[in-house]
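Structure representation.

___
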Amino acid sequence: MTTGRSRSRSTRANVRSQATDGSSNGPASEVAAATDVSPPSQAVVELEPTTTTGVRTRLELTWPHKNGRLLYEYDKNGNPHPTFEEVLCTPEPRALVDVLQVGSEKGREWDDASNLLIRGDNLTALETLKRYYAGKIKLIYIDPPFNTGQAFEEYDDGLEHSIWLTMMRDRLELLRELLAEDGSLWCEIDDTQVGYLNVLLDEIFGRSNRIATVTVKRSAATGHKAINPGPINVTDFIFGYARLRSKWVYNPQLVTRGDYDKQYNKFIRNIDKDHSKWKLENLAEVAAADKGFASAAEARKVMSSPTFNRAMIDYALANANNVVRLAIPNYVAVSNAARALIDKSKSDDGIYLLERSAHSNMYFIKGQRILFLRDKIQEGESGEAPSLAEKLTNFWDDIAWQGIAKEGGVDFKKNKKPERLLQRIIALGSRKGDLVLDSFAGSGTTGAVAHKMGRRWILVEIGDQSELLALTRMKRVVSGKDTSGVSRAEGFAGGGGFRYMTLAEPLISHEPTFFLPILNPKYSNGLLITAICLREGFTPTGDAVLHGRGGDRAFAHVTEDFVTGDYLEQLSRSAPIDSVVTVYCLNHDSDVQMPEHLRLRRIPGELASQYCGEPPQPRSTRR
């Protein structure tokens, strides 16, 4: 394994065009044996043509070590240090070890309904989760390190960029595989890497699957930021991408307005009549008459203008079904039928109706569209009065980032995200019962909000932070002690449960002299079965004989017993007709005769799969 700790200060990312011929890296065993590609010592930003004669091409972001895999080595204190494996190897999937069950998860087996908090490196965790949850995750939110010069501070800028990009590429590719076809990923970033991340996401998810680029105002231009020599940075960015844009469904969201839209100044008193008989009146005059005044001018004189205006707004909200405004429609964007009615309405004073089945009806008068205040009303939470709202845009400045230090009862300075932010993201892309994932879990905000909103969730966090922050927080959520954040808005007072799990150690280690593979002595019984199945590409079944399944006909059987001919004959009788069963054992009779549909592999020397950091192993298989 090489460390890749070069010191080129001029190293930068390069945008280039690469032909797409439909080829792939192939299975893990082929990738691990691929030719080593050395990264350039220096790269420049260069945009080449996106097409060449007869060849389809695509833009690709390139950087040093892109053809390798970023791994982590741990020092004696457990601190991770990034290193590069100079081929696109596959991280070894590990068994998940139960540590703790909380709440309703106590005494039950892990299944698809279980919420999971996993401690361990998220690359290995995602490779493991892929064996269970590929194509099942409805929404992913990640808040990765922003690469501000602090995450990998011992490296110079050029290499630091390549570390960050490789780290993100490796994880985003796995996250995409975990998403359901109608699922979406939401990735938050600041301006340090926003440009590179945008191109990287386009490359992995496809530009056509981009949902939105959201700008989030996270702070005000005050404090130490105000002395910066230039525009003050007060925003983050959130990229939203669908697994398949054509299948993703948006749950419309409304944003509360702080003030009344004065354009809603018309009132239809006879709204219960046919639209052709509607009469539009001045809202202020109608509100004044309701207060017993002869005119709005009289009402303002007696009540004062601010008091009357407040009373008029209250009246409008109470009668939102009758209050309207006129707006000039986008003539080019509407349908032919709408254009015809717009044109027709200009010729007289009549009101024209366009009925629509999939959307609200459209009304036109004098070339303008009638818009109803009722469509901008948001029901109040927990008995609060209704408020004005508008459709969600891609600029979010209504979520408070100050005062969130106590949310969840854990302290996560400078990195904690508001629960309301996650509430909005989860609401727009998922429904109750859907599965939400955060592989950079931090203090556990995503899991806390998902739990309160009735979603299933999976969190992954490395190191002690998983216990000190995320585990502590999720215990408080389940117990009902956490009443902060969105608890009141979601009507949540506790309940549910989750499992706290860790990634097992590597299955195979190597003796130091000749680097020969040896089985990790901590693996035995059920843990060995799970590890072998995951490693060899089988899904654990829980069956007493056919321990793993790989497709319709392929099965795995794992045993620590000495395998003889009689053992295999008995196993053969238990296997389904036309199936192929691979038997994994620690040792076997050298003269054993194999039934036709059984395969025999010795652990660890004859395991077929090849993973990062492992030397090639013998491929012989007894048949």
Observations:
- The chain has 13 helices and 31 strands.
- The longest strand covers residues 179-189.
